[in-house]
Write a structure and sequence with these properties.
With about 425 residues, the protein is mostly beta strands. It contains three helices and 31 strands.
């Protein structure tokens, strides 16, 4: 429904100051809008209509009667713009109407809004007492159609991995609008001009990897709208996350080697085996950045074993960490992180031997005779020992148990030798 406003009132001639009024009326209608030009076209009507009286003047001088229409708004017509004027209105018969029409195209503000009103002047210029006195009438201030202006861009995805593409949609209000799009990441930007409805953005490695000093950055998309060569509003923005391909540019953990440096346990074990709680493992960990990492450096190497983590810091592009510890678990987890925050990991599974020291749990000693029978007067003793003992294979050696004892008489001051 078209936007319109109207108003009217009565004005009177000096000869009839309170009767036979003349209806003075003004109205306007918004007939169309132009998104391309950010304008509205308005149709105006003003009239003076007799309700019984009439006037006729022979005064053809400059001081005659006229009817006019003006437009006032909150943009370029704040002081008023004349739409049309009719001069030298010398007569108006009984119950007759003098009508004036006009058309005006008005520019909206940069944000596409506009409010205004129409005003009509009737100006009495002759000396005829039957001619109505001067007056003016205005419509109410009316808000016109809000015209869509600057395009608001959106990205087809919230995140993008370098080496891939997404679409930047301008969401333009008019098919005639063009745009300048600028994509900025970590201080580096690319600009595309004369963009219509959309632009495919491809994050090539050569273009963007040299500026990726972190694993990811927020990419800011700025979109400036144009209608022809005229800039429309201010640039609008959107964003997405630009990320390094962590699967491609993660650090490289080379061939990890490990050995038991405890000569006592290594003499018992097969190669690659470790006795928990006794073996001392030495792990050699070569680490480097990806050959085509575009300037990243190593940052840390961490080794986690049995819940404890050892961290090695470096800023080199290649580094060898040496980890030494008593073996307390069968798994070692290695992580290498580069200056971008990209991490690679490797898990080493150890062959472990769950050795435990012998533990005596009970000793029972009784006196026996030569027939090995219990006897309070026997000359022999029988010793029974209960113990927990590891009787497993270390690899090179099989664990055995040797039990030795020694004794003394109550009256003796020292024990015998171990036998």
């Amino acid at each position: 429904m078209a936007i319109s406003a109207s108003n009217g009132h009565y004005i009177y001639a000096p000869a009839y100051p309170s009767s036979y009024g003349y209806d003075h009326h003004v109205e306007f209608t918004e007939s169309s809008t132009s998104t391309e030009n950010n304008t509205s076209t308005l149709n105006f009507t003003a009239y003076l209509r007799s309700t019984g009286a009439s006037f006729s003047s022979t005064d053809t001088s400059d001081h005659n009667n006229w009817l006019s229409i003006y437009w006032f708004d909150d943009n370029e017509s704040q002081s008023g713009t004349r739409v049309t004027i009719a001069e030298k209105i010398l007569s108006l018969g009984q119950n007759a109407k003098y009508e004036l029409t006009g058309t005006l195209t008005v520019p909206h503000k940069d944000d596409g809004t506009l409010s205004g009103y129409a005003l009509s002047y009737w100006t009495k210029g002759d000396g005829n007492s039957y001619t109505p006195a001067s007056g003016e009438i205005a419509t109410a201030t009316t808000t016109l159609t809000s015209i869509a202006r600057a395009s608001h861009p959106t990205a087809s995805a919230s995140s993008l991995t370098i080496g891939n593409s997404l679409t930047i949609n301008t969401n333009r209000a008019s098919s005639s609008f063009t745009h300048t799009i600028k994509v900025t990441v970590n201080g580096h930007s690319v600009t595309y001009t004369n963009v219509g409805a959309s632009k495919t953005f491809t994050a090539t490695e050569a273009e963007w990897m040299p500026y990726m000093s972190a694993k990811s950055y927020t990419a800011i998309v700025s979109c400036q709208t144009y209608s022809g060569s005229t800039k429309i509003g201010s640039a609008q923005t959107c964003s997405f996350t630009l990320a390094v391909d962590a699967s491609k540019y993660k650090p490289v953990i080379g061939s990890v080697t490990h050995t038991d440096t405890n000569t006592t346990t290594s003499a018992l074990e097969s190669d690659g085996s470790y006795i928990i709680g006794y073996s001392t493992i030495e792990v050699t960990i070569p680490v480097s950045v990806n050959n085509s990492s575009y300037g990243s450096k190593l940052k840390t190497v961490t080794v986690t074993h049995n819940g404890r983590t050892q961290t090695y810091s470096t800023t080199a592009t290649s580094y060898t960490a040496t980890y030494t510890a008593t073996v307390t678990a069968g798994t070692i987890v290695i992580k290498a992180t580069d200056s971008r925050g990209v991490t690679a990991s490797k898990t080493i599974k150890l062959t472990t031997i769950a050795y435990a020291k012998p533990k005596l749990t009970a000793i029972d000693i009784i006196r026996i005779n030569s027939d090995k029978e219990e006897s309070e007067t026997g000359n022999y003793i029988k010793t029974s020992i209960t113990a927990n003992v590891f009787l497993g294979d270390f690899g090179k050696e099989y664990n055995t148990l040797t039990v030795t004892t020694r004794r003394k008489l109550r009256s003796a001051s020292s024990y015998s030798s171990w036998v």
